[in-house]
Design brief:
This is LuxR family transcriptional regulator. It holds the Pfam family NB-ARC. The chain is mainly alpha-helical. The protein is 64% helix and 5% strand. The protein is built from 40 helices and 8 strands. Helix 28 packs antiparallel against helix 29. The C terminus is likely disordered.
Length: 769
């Protein structure tokens, strides 16, 4: 939103806006470009924020030009990164129980899409209020339109009268920022008033006019604006023309060329795309400074990124089009970001700096969207668009943009002139992977074999490995765990040959889960350790949650329930930290089964409801669609309904589902250590088994050997904080205060049992992750 530091006047509009928001659910600030709608909205938000317990969400649309992506864009701003085709449903579900203000800024170019989305969201959430800013009204039922007019600039007879005008106050404030010490005095108030009138009282025009004081004196600005403005309705264009005329030839070229960027640009991108003719790459930084002096360009935050206001960008775009270089600029722009995507893909595949790669691509997401839109809207550019889509597979699938990725891939496949190139195979693989992720198994089954065949014909190990990895997931979903193991093993071999560490790790995790479903506990121990070591070596944290899940699933299947709840807690926290809702859904589903086995029935039912809400939120039907899952899921569900009774069971499920609105809320509920969770400690699962559980006895043995928490975690394949939790429990149960006292207790137990009383950490049935 706009910086409110230079906010002037608008008391009447703000009071009116507050009243409208109090009594209505949709208010649109409507007016000319540059009139100050965004700034009024930002100021109003500061005044009403406390009235919205669930906060304020800003959705700024000046960098978005694809109507179909608006729901996804809004969901991102609400912190939702789930993989589902139904982004509108996801967003509506998220807002259903919230008392929140949604601000949709600069939506005139997407007015129809915004109107459709707002209609659905208001119907879904009684506590939602929407504030829109637009040059066009949305035109939907219940909309209250507040017209924002330019500042009034009436005649004034004295300096004092002029100084009372908001337009003059704004000019004075902006001018003082450009020329410290500037004041509206007896010698210049009439000139300031005249300039504000020539600029029709439009705040943005006044700010740009004031910025020119750094270059020329006030009388010359008024004279230049007068020459450019025969039509008073074009006051904003006139000051832009004035600013443009005062640029050097190189600055003009840079202004035109910068208009091709969406959502801002880095200095590196500007140097690469905008150079040529009178603009050398080495000169760009100096030219940027010149455009900033004229208020054409602004630094975006504290980093080395720069952006234009949309109206200023549109002006530059018209100049570029008139000069006949817009199409060329868009090609250069697209090619630059295609090259960036390829570099990022290589680093991702190699497992290098993936956090940096994700952040880099995310910062350029608006530019990538613009590049893709140009490619698919321009005849003859579809091949380049396909290449860009294909190289960003890692981003669509693993950085929270799966739904958007599927949309771009669909366009790419539809417009691809050839089905024989590698980019087509990669795009088809993205399609298949995403299809499985959202539960469209039929689509995945249809396209992935084609990808595999393409790779086999050309002996392309990366493509073969990627296809086999997805096929392994498909087999696992169908309950074919033995076949899944074979597919994952083959995938790993091909990916290692290709040097693709990232997807090799994905295949390792899949292999681990498939091994768990096979019940091969001995093999699972080594497989889990290998996966964790591979993840640690490549700097990845995300596999740990899946390792924990796989090992816990195997132990639960073998009837071992002790300490699973404690050990899974760190994995749940890990899923929260990485915002991995899919991993969280897996873990919560398994937690429900474990609680059922531990006779914690009400909580098991609540967790089953929470898991269902989580599955719905990611658009996945994994439990219902997987033969491997449907059996234990249904068994758990039927048993809980039988034990609790239908009415109590349904209330518990509904209660659990209500806690899945946000990932943070879901995690807190999943880890809630209520009275029902503690029941086994008091006489259920551990009755008559001595002071320590089997896992705690193992940890005590390792403490006696002198191992640190980190070393214990490595031995048992758990997180260090899980090891610490076990040590804390041991200290409490034994009533001791130090690790040496634990060691003494272990020695006493071993002596009493002839040295054979403490089980080995590697024994079958004791493995943990």
């Amino acid at each position: 939103m706009a910086d409110v530091a230079r906010f002037v006047g608008r008391r009447t509009e703000l009071a009116d806006l507050r009243r409208r928001l109090a009594r209505g659910r949709l208010v649109t600030l409507h007016g000319l470009g540059g009139v100050g709608k965004t700034r009024i909205a930002a100021q109003a938000v500061e005044q009403v924020r406390r009235g919205f317990p669930d906060g304020v969400v800003f959705v700024e649309l000046d960098g978005l030009h694809e109507p179909e992506l608006l729901p996804r864009f809004a969901a991102e701003r609400c912190g939702l990164t789930e993989s589902t085709d139904d982004q509108v449903g996801l967003l509506a579900n998220h807002l259903r129980d919230k008392n929140l203000l949604l601000v949709i800024d600069n939506c005139e170019h997407l007015a129809d899409a915004a109107a459709r989305l707002v209609t659905v969201l208001l119907a879904a959430s009684a506590g939602l209020r929407v504030l829109a800013t637009s040059r066009h009204v949305l035109g939907i039922e219940g909309e209250q339109v507040l017209r924002v007019e330019p500042f009034s600039v009436p005649e004034a007879r004295t300096r004092a009268e002029a100084a009372e005008l908001d337009a003059v106050s704004l000019f004075a404030q902006c001018a003082a920022a450009e020329r410290p010490g500037f004041e509206v005095g007896e010698d210049n108030w009439a000139a300031v008033l005249d300039l504000c009138r020539r600029l029709d009282g439009i705040p943005l025009a006044i700010e740009i006019g004031a910025a020119l004081l750094r270059l020329v004196p006030l009388p010359e600005i008024s004279e230049r604006v007068a020459r450019q403005n025969p039509d008073p309705r074009r006051s904003l264009d006139s000051v832009l023309e004035c600013s443009y005329d005062m640029c050097t030839a190189a600055e003009k070229l840079l202004w035109q060329r910068l208009s091709v960027f969406a959502g801002g640009a880095s200095l590196e991108a500007m140097e690469e795309i905008c150079r040529g003719d009178e603009v050398a790459a080495a000169d760009v930084l100096g030219l940027v400074a010149g455009l900033m002096d004229k208020a054409v360009l602004h630094r975006d935050g504290s980093g080395a990124r720069y952006r234009m206001l949309e109206i200023v960008r549109e002006y530059g775009e018209r100049k570029a089009e008139a000069a006949g270089e817009l199409a060329t600029l868009r090609c250069l722009h697209r090619d630059y970001f295609s090259s960036l995507a390829v570099r990022c893909e290589r680093r991702w595949d190699a497992g290098i700096d993936q956090a940096w790669v994700s952040a880099t691509v995310m910062s350029e997401h608006p530019n990538i969207r613009a590049a893709l839109r140009f490619s698919f809207d321009t005849p003859g550019e579809g091949v380049a668009g396909l290449a860009l889509v294909a190289s960003l597979g890692f981003y669509w699938l693993h950085c929270g943009f799966l739904a958007e990725g599927r949309s771009w891939v669909t366009q790419a496949l539809a417009t691809a002139p050839s089905k024989k190139n590698r980019d087509y195979a990669k795009a088809l693989w993205i399609d298949g992977y995403a299809s499985y992720a959202v539960g469209d198994h039929a689509r995945g089954d249809a396209v992935i074999p084609e990808v595999l065949e393409w790779g086999q014909v050309r002996d392309d190990h990366k493509i073969i490995g990627l296809a086999l990895t997805v096929m392994g997931g498909g087999a696992l979903v169908r309950g074919e765990s033995v076949r899944a193991v074979d597919l994952y093993r083959a995938a790993i071999e091909h990916l290692l040959v290709a040097g693709n560490k990232s997807y090799s790790l994905v295949a390792h995790v899949g292999l681990l889960v498939a091994t768990a479903f096979n019940g091969a506990l001995g093999e699972l121990t080594e497989r889990a350790r290998e996966t964790v070591e591979l993840a640690d070596a490549s700097g990845h944290d995300w596999p740990r949650a899946y390792v924990t899940f796989a090992v816990a699933l195997a132990r639960w299947s073998a009837g071992e329930h002790e300490d699973l709840l404690t050990d899974m807690a760190s994995a749940v926290r890990g899923a929260e930290n990485l915002h991995d809702r899919f991993a969280l859904a897996l873990l919560v589903e398994l937690l429900a089964w474990i609680h059922d086995s531990c006779e914690l029935y009400p909580r098991a039912a609540k967790l089953l409801g929470l898991a269902g809400r989580l599955w719905d939120s990611i658009g996945s039907n994994l439990v219902q669609g997987s033969r491997a899952w449907v059996g234990p899921h249904q068994t758990c569900r039927d048993h809980l309904e039988e034990v609790l009774g239908t009415a109590v069971f349904e209330r518990a499920v509904k209660s659990g589902a209500s806690h899945g609105v946000s990932i943070e809320q879901a995690v807190e509920f999943a880890l809630n250590s209520g009275a029902d969770v503690a029941e086994p400690e008091r006489g259920g699962a551990q009755s008559g088994r001595g002071p320590l559980s089997k896992r705690e006895t193992q940890v005590a043995s390792l403490v006696a050997e002198g191992l640190t928490n980190k070393e214990i975690a490595a031995k048992l394949l758990v997180a260090p904080r899980t090891a610490q939790t076990h040590v804390d429990h041991i200290l409490t149960k034994l009533g001791v205060e130090s690790r040496s006292q634990i060691a003494a207790w272990v020695a006493k137990q071993q002596k009493g049992r002839g040295g054979a009383g403490v089980s080995s950490p590697g024994s079958p049935g004791t493995l943990q992750a």
